[in-house]
């Protein structure tokens, strides 16, 4: 019943008359990204059809009776184009929030959404949501529930500070404070240069050295340059457990390098990542190469190959895929 009501609600927004949409939205948007892939774990392989975080969302803003202040909202859901099911759900929550935006005071939002540290990756990752995604060698990319974030206005059309906190919501337990986890970032962005520094404190994320999730303190540095037809990106991250786990402190040190070249409708791209594990003295490496062909401004086909493996462990995953992506909004 809930799934039917959600589908009906989104459909009704699309069908609203234009008079009702005069208030900066709502805008219905999304993308369909489908790939046909061969996934090989070193022992067995299988052909799969994947949806790669395809999504459907509604966003907009409402003018308020206060100068330069507006109410903003967003409700975005992942949709599974391949089989209609995401862990038992037709619609899986992505970034969902409400808040306020002021021209000179900044933006305040609350809900469930990407932390400033996750968002600080910008478009450095050339293989997001595919087998070559940076998440295969880096933790820290978290979408968090019960999070509140303030973002400053953009200074000099380039610089912005973001700060978020998460209340514990565990009455009588260890996590019962007004702000038990923090995430922040400082982002500089122009047409040619993107650079960011971000930090998480006490944020639950994957620690590769531990082989599990734990509360971690994470520092991330990232940058990307667009030089004519070339794109060059780099990211460094250090993450360690906030508290010892059974008397042991675990630490990951990872980096990612990415590059691309645009040739007319073609985009050729590659990236390499490595995570140096402290306690296990192992290394996890990521390699990916691929090509996109643009069919239109919001439509492309692509092919790629990626490999993720451990130096000493048993992990040896490789993926070959071809697919397409269509973006839309109305």
Automatic annotation (TrEMBL):
InterPro entries registered for this protein in UniProt: Gram-neg_bact_OMP, Gram_neg_porin_domain, Porin_dom_sf
Residue span, Porin domain: 12-312
PANTHER family, sorted: MAJOR OUTER MEMBRANE PROTEIN P.IA, PROTEIN YDDL-RELATED
Superkingdom, taxonomy of origin: Bacteria
Subcellular location: Cell outer membrane
Record flagged with keyword Transmembrane: yes
Membrane topology type: Multi-pass membrane protein
Protein name in the entry: Porin
Assembly with partners or alone: Homotrimer.
Organism name: Marinobacter xestospongiae
Keyword annotations from UniProtKB, A to Z: Cell outer membrane, Ion transport, Membrane, Porin, Signal, Transmembrane, Transmembrane beta strand, Transport
Keyword Ion transport set for record: yes
Signal peptide boundaries: 1-22
